[in-house]
Q: What sequence folds into this?
């Protein structure tokens, strides 16, 4: 099987190489009008088919590695290092992306899969797709070169084949780990498609904005994958790492956040290009940057340039990424400079108080957030270069610098949708802002008796309560503004159709899925902000516990009922059984664990969490007291965390709605299909 | 009116001062400073959040932190002492010294310049853009628009 896998990778590389070269030659011939021995159309078609075939070859390679994991083929060094016989089946599958070589193979395979869809759907626009396919083939060649030359997943074990493997990293043995990396990679890799279309459209000086229409769904789906990937990672960190939080501003986390921020900016600013023909250069550079940031993130963590808790070991592949990044930047800059006259805006902004301005400021703030994350990630390297010593830039920096930017962004989320395109009158501002403003003020006052004291910013170094207070007020503003939009639109339909208000609002959403789906996404983001706002009020308690001993945390009393140990072929475990009371009422039973995995000997905490909409009671088994042998229990009370995950679900729902066609368009398509399948009545022909 | 405003603000300022007077307690300082340092064992975790089983450093460092707070040292003195003893990577964020000031200043400065620049740019564009002539309400176009709306309504 390793030989088959290696061969499949070589074939995939050869096919992608052919796609790149033949595609480039054909497009050059078509552009200049010179014809070679083979007609350019025919050459482009062979290139497309080679691209399609490269997907099957890459699939064979991915299958070969998964097969090797399932059959415990320890002749493959990668399988020895990342799997073992006792590993459950789902995690054997996850072994594909648990190491550097496997994750690069996954990247190459996903890229080939995206390319497959793009090339199969080439009739959307044959010429533009040919450009995009060729550019994508260039990216494929890079990743296939990596897995063929620099990080080969099918390298054979040196010396005697071991009877068992080292096993999967214990931290990765968690159900979400089976879906989190593929989701994240689908996001990273997916941005290659709008990137390829944007670069291709610029190369061929594509008229109009059709390339944006073609890539809109690609971009949104990709953005959704990246969003889900990031949040699954947060949930994994929260449930597995056991430090009580979900985001640690680690370079790997930052690497995923940066393309998400620029991708979000792109999703907003393309609307200006579609509707007003503005910001064309900006949009092109936003998507270029998003793609390059995905590559830069990989470079930062894999080259050993910055240290991270979940970066792969330092290796020589960093140089490969540097070279690829420089080539990509050079190609983008060259194509842009040559064709920049093609990107002149059709219109200019007419008012500071308009939807366009709000998009512009939204983009600026998103980019400032992205720069802050990049700056914080790279500052240790810069400091080492300038001062000769490396500093740490972690949570306190981001909390102080990035959080205010995030709060400002939340404010823009609220005001953007209630501003009109081109210009908004004072009367309209007053009409649309009064209600959200009043609600925000009421909430700002109402949360103070609940313990949100913004003035603590003057008494302590912590600014959390102050920013949480602003976040809650801003969240109220945005939710009211969004609800008012639904209410107003729904009322109009209700008056005309006589339906109830909810049905009217559903119909309103179906008539303009993009706009109202977008509002639902904003609503989801606001819920996420509310959840993050609760972080300022986290409490914790740590105690060594004997039988029947208890402690109080917030409204809960945690009592130790028992502690014991157990083992299975995969791991040994120590755990405590805890009863949780609220007053005299038993609320739940929790069993935090500490596992030590047999193959690697590494420990891993299994968090026990009682989650409600108000707060999470998050309990970890922190070890045993060496003197008494009793368990050390650490508990956190984390307010509002559940809203983060609810917000994610709402965001997914909103994106799904925004991706669906409008009701009128769907009905028109249905009518078209019916008309095409039914015979045309004689009397109506030619109507 | 101005006097009235002054009278209204004065009690607010007094109330705010009354509420904000007083220093943070020891536990709050411990939590705050514990979040401003890193565990040095190589786990890359915030000192107070290090849950790494059998960590050789975090308990000792937290003990030193408690002792320094009990000793009455200022926050700045404690952070400087830890930095001197364990190196600059022991702090979770750089202190406001020399080159490190750049870490804190550059992102907000860039945002402020960006916002100001965008505001000026939009203002310039707006001044250059000729105002749209007011279009008189044409009864024919109104009628046509109503008809289109009726025909396309679902």
A:
């Amino acid at each position: 099987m390793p030989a088959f896998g290696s061969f499949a990778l070589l074939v995939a590389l050869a096919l992608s190489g052919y796609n790149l070269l033949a595609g480039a030659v054909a497009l050059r011939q078509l552009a200049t009008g010179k014809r070679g021995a083979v007609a350019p159309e025919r050459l482009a078609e062979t290139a497309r088919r080679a691209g399609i075939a490269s997907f099957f070859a890459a699939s064979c390679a991915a299958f070969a590695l998964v097969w090797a994991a399932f059959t415990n083929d320890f002749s493959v060094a990668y399988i020895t290092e990342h799997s073992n016989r006792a590993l459950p089946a789902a995690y054997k599958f996850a072994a594909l992306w648990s190491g550097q070589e496997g994750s690069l193979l996954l990247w190459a395979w996903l890229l080939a899969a995206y390319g497959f869809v793009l090339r199969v759907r080439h009739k959307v626009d044959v010429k533009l797709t040919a450009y995009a396919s060729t550019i994508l083939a260039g990216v494929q060649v890079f990743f296939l070169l990596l897995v063929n030359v620099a990080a080969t997943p099918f390298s054979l074990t040196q010396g005697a084949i071991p009877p068992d493997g080292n096993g999967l990293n214990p931290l990765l043995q968690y159900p979400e780990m089976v879906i989190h990396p593929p989701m994240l990679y689908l996001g990273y890799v997916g941005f290659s498609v709008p990137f390829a279309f944007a670069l291709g459209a610029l190369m061929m000086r594509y008229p109009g904005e059709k390339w944006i229409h073609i890539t809109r769904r690609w971009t949104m789906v990709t953005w959704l994958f990246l969003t889900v990937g990031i949040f699954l990672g947060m949930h994994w960190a929260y449930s597995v790492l056991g430090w009580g939080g979900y985001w640690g501003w680690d370079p790997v986390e930052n690497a995923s956040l940066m393309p998400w921020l620029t991708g979000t900016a792109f999703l907003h600013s393309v609307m200006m290009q579609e509707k007003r023909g503005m910001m064309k250069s900006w949009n092109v550079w936003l998507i270029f940057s998003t793609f390059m940031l995905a590559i830069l993130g990989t470079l930062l963590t894999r080259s050993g340039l910055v240290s991270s808790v979940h970066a792969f070991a330092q290796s020589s592949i960093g140089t490969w990424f540097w070279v690829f990044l420089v080539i990509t930047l050079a190609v983008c800059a060259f194509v842009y400079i040559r064709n920049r006259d093609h990107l002149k805006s059709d219109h200019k902004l007419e008012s500071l108080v308009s939807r366009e301005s709000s998009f512009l400021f939204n983009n600026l703030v998103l980019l400032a957030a992205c720069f802050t994350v990049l700056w914080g990630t790279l500052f240790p390297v810069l400091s080492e270069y300038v001062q000769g010593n490396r500093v740490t830039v972690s949570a306190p920096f981001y909390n102080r610098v990035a959080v205010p930017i995030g709060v400002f962004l939340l404010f823009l989320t609220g005001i953007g949708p209630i501003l009109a395109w081109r210009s908004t009158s004072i009367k309209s501002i007053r009409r649309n802002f009064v209600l959200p403003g009043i609600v925000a003020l009421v909430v700002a006052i109402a949360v103070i008796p609940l313990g949100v004291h913004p003035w603590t910013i003057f008494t302590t170094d912590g600014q959390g309560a102050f920013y949480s207070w602003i976040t809650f007020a801003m969240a109220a503003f945005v939710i009211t503004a969004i609800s008012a939009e639904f209410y107003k639109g729904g009322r109009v339909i209700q008056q005309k159709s006589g339906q109830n208000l909810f049905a009217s609002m559903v119909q309103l959403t179906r008539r303009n899925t993009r706009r109202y789906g977008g509002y639902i996404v904003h609503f989801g983001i606001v819920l996420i902000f509310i959840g993050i706002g609760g972080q300022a009020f986290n409490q914790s308690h740590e105690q060594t516990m004997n039988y029947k001993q208890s402690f109080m945390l917030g409204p809960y009393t945690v009592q130790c009922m028992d502690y014991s140990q157990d083992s299975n072929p995969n791991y040994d475990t120590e755990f405590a059984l805890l009863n949780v009371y609220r007053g005299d009422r038993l609320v739940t039973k929790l069993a935090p664990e500490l596992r030590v995995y047999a193959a690697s000997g590494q420990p891993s905490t299994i968090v026990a969490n009682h989650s409600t909409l108000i707060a999470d009671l998050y309990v970890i088994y922190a070890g045993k007291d060496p003197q008494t042998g009793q368990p050390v229990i650490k508990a956190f009370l984390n307010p509002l965390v559940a809203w983060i995950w609810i917000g994610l679900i709402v965001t997914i729902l909103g994106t799904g709605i925004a991706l669906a066609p409008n009701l009128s368009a769907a009905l028109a398509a249905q009518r078209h299909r019916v008309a095409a399948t039914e015979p045309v009545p004689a009397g109506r022909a030619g109507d | 009116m101005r006097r009235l405003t002054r009278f209204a603000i004065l009690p607010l300022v007094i109330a705010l001062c009354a509420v904000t007077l007083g220093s943070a307690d020891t536990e709050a300082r411990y939590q705050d400073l514990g979040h401003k340092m890193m565990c040095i064992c190589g786990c890359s975790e915030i000192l107070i959040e290090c849950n790494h089983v059998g960590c050789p450093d975090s308990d000792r460092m937290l003990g030193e932190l408690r002792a320094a707070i009990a000793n009455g040292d200022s926050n700045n003195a404690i952070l400087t002492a830890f930095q001197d003893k364990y190196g600059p990577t022991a702090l979770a964020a750089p202190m406001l010294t020399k080159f490190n000031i750049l870490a804190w200043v550059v992102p907000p400065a860039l945002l402020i310049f960006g916002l100001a620049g965008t505001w000026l740019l939009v203002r310039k564009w707006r001044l250059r853009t000729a105002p749209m002539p007011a279009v008189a309400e044409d009864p024919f176009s109104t009628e046509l628009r109503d008809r289109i709306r009726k025909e396309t309504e679902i």
Q: What stands out?
A: Chain A touches chain B through 62 residues (CB under 8 Å).
